[in-house]
Amino acid sequence: MPTNMFYKLLPQQVPVFWEAIKLACVSADEVKSTDAGPYVNELLHALLNNKAQCWLRLNEERRLVALSITRIKFSPQTEEKQLFIQVAYSWELVPDDVWYRDLGILREYAKKEGCTSVGFISGNSRIWDIGYSCGFTEVSRTFSHIL
Fold this sequence. Notes:
By secondary structure, the protein is an alpha+beta fold. The chain has helices spanning 14-28, 36-48, 96-112, 125-133, and strands at 6-8, 52-58, 64-74, 81-90, 117-120. The longest helix has 17 residues, at 96-112.
């Protein structure tokens, strides 16, 4: 079971974990291979300029087991400052109570940054379950029709 080794990378640490970050983000955001280049370029630029933040979970052996990407945005529903969780990805099963602790760290970071909420968008039912178990409520649903 993972310990509470969840922390925010500094921008200068991003290159060390870049391959894992790319893999996790492209997978979690379901980026098509034809769109991967611009997607990862924007992500790298945002991480290096602290416009996006990368959070890592390491296990007892200091092996990467999960990561999250956050961005500070303005909520489209409320126009208030929000910590938006863009990606939550794990290579191993992370129990809900551990995600809950990690979200506590993200909540504290959000408060420190003057955010009034933490939010996420996902099409993954496991992420929905984690959100519900951590006290999130559903605000809206997004629908799309591929042409």
